[in-house]
Amino acid sequence: MNENNSMAYTPNDSMPSDSPQNYSVYTQDGAAQANAAQTDMAQNNAAQTDTAQNNTAQTDLVQNNATQTDTAQDNAPDHAVSLQKPDTPDRPAQDTYPQNTPDHEQGSRAQNGTAPNDQVCTPNGNIQSSPGADAVYSNLPLLQLNDLCKRYPGMGTYMSVFHMNLIIPRGRIIGLLGPNGCGKTTLIKMINGLLTPTSGTVLINGMEPCPATKKIISYLPERTYLDNSMKVSQMVSYFADFYEDFSPEKAYAMLGALGISSDARLKTLSKGTKEKVQLILVMSRQADLYILDEPIAGVDPAARDYILRTIITNYNPNSTIILSTHLISDIENVLDDVIFMKNGSLMLYTSVDSIRSQMGKSVDTYFREVYAC
Amino acid sequence: MLGKLLKYEWRGLRFPFLILLIVLASTTLLTCGVILTINPMYDESLAWYSVMALMLSIFLYYFGIIGCTIGTSLIVVIRFYKTCYTDQGYLTHTLPVTAGQLLNAKLIAAVAADILMVLSIALSLFLIVQVGLHHFLSFAPGYTYEEMMRELSQEFSYVFGDFEESFGISFGLFIVYMVVYSVIAMIANIVTIFGCVSLGQLFTKHRIIGAIIAYFGVQFILQIAGYFTSLPMYTKMLITNYDSDLTFFGLMSPTLNLTLLAVTVLAVAMYFINLHMMTKRLNLE
């Protein structure tokens, strides 16, 4: 559990009323600032000021225009409507989440021992954001980042990931969003144990990255990681050999649906087709946590719909999917929550419905405003 | 999991290894072909050609086996680098296996490839000798292969009868000692190269060059260690009379043992450096 003096985040179903006051923003030039200090922090940090101002503006917008929700729905792309993710019995609908009562929730968590530090910040206090899943699994969060930092050698004092605290529950589809170079891939690589954090910890089911955590994470990197000399069928066997939760039948069915020959050697396939093969292999697992780094970036728009359908179809209600992408409009209808990152810091972790209902914007529109150059 | 890792490790190595075996087989056949053209009977018109052919066959074979030996090390190291520290590393390091299992699988496969190559070279050498012997015997009517082998075995038994007296160790024990020495040195060499590849990852850029620098650094340390391990031999040579009872093995064994110890210590250190790099210092680009 979080035993340091930093702040951890869980999804916030009423983000706009908190923005920017009720969630913390971490800066590259100092320690984490609490909510009350946001104004000062924003004045001192140009990088974060824009965001804070944008968020304040958004809050006003919501207060002044309650009808923006419809507009936000309209802003979502039409072609993505068919990709709406259905709510499942195991996964509570967004509006069933408790309202934002940070003080109360902090107190209750401190009492039940799940959050030993009273500075743990959860804007909606929803640490048990997947109660159904918690009945099955332990109280441990699926993924927890504690004061996570990453500084690459040769980059001076700049941190690619800066004091990041986050709690990811089970049963969510989460978009990890942010501009190029904001630290998304670095964060993902640290979760998968491919990068060693400079400081802080990554806990998956309470464990640091190890073979046990790799058993429950299905990871799709942003690059081609398959052995080009192998055939597609050999890669299927490879995954079947190493991952107990891998279903070859499912993989072959998806390969067939996309018209990819299992006898083809990977080196003969195009980059896009290789990416499809990778995604098929990754989604043919029954993992607890799927981490997909730019899964649709290299494929044509027609295939994107199939891929997103694949993600939703293979989605296990007790699993969580973290999706990193720039193509927000394509995926926002499948997302439950979004994480916005900027300059290696966590800017925002909230639900998509909150953005739509309270900000009156689609995630894509909101993203463009927040990250406007 | 180790078995599965070994299976895929060997699958990855077998194709380039097969190419090396084909190269070795071709070199062997070519060398045999050249040997068969040599006329051991003195013939003024052919003498020049025979000498040239003999030299060519020796060079051809020498470079053939050197190439195959280096080639085996290269394919093993390239695969290690490729699967651990390039894009494929993203798959390798997200497999639900420990770094120890990964390293052991690669090490076992590499040692197996090296041993297979040594055995293949031995077989090839045997073939060449057989072809040469049969060819030269064909020019000596009345002198059969069996007769020659009988004479050779008598010569060997005569030499090896005195082996213990001359070398200070029985022939059988010496062979066992050398085999154990070679296997340990082989493993140490592979672990050291793997370790240097991993150490190269400490460099922000030009990681392959970093690995080469690390290898030269390790070799430099080994050379220094080699100097100190040679001290017992030089000391004995200086303080004893060469005509005394000191045998060859008696003179060499302290140095050999110390070298073996140094190599083993280095191999163990590099093994743990490798594990450390693959767990605590992994930073895939």
Characterization of the model:
The complex is a heterodimer of chains A (373) and B (285). Chain A starts with 14 loop residues before the first helix and ends with a helix. Chain A has helices at 15-18, 38-44, 46-64, 68-75, 102-112, 131-136, 184-191, 211-216, 232-242, 248-257, 271-283, 301-313, 328-331, 352-359, 363-370; strands spanning 143-150, 161-168, 173-177, 199-204, 217-220, 289-293, 320-324, 337-342, 345-351. In chain A, the strands form two sheets. In chain A, strands 5-6-7-3-8-9 form a six-stranded mixed β-sheet, with helices on both faces. A three-stranded antiparallel β-sheet of chain A has the order 2-1-4, with helices on one face. The model of chain A is unreliable at 1-6, 12-84 and 86-137 (pLDDT under 50). Chain A is an alpha/beta fold. The longest helix of chain B is centred in the N-terminal third of the chain and has 42 residues, at 44-85. The model of chain B has no long low-confidence stretch (mean pLDDT 85). Classes of the chains: A alpha/beta (373), B mainly alpha (285). Chains A and B meet through helix 8 and helix 9 of A and helix 1 and helix 3 of B.
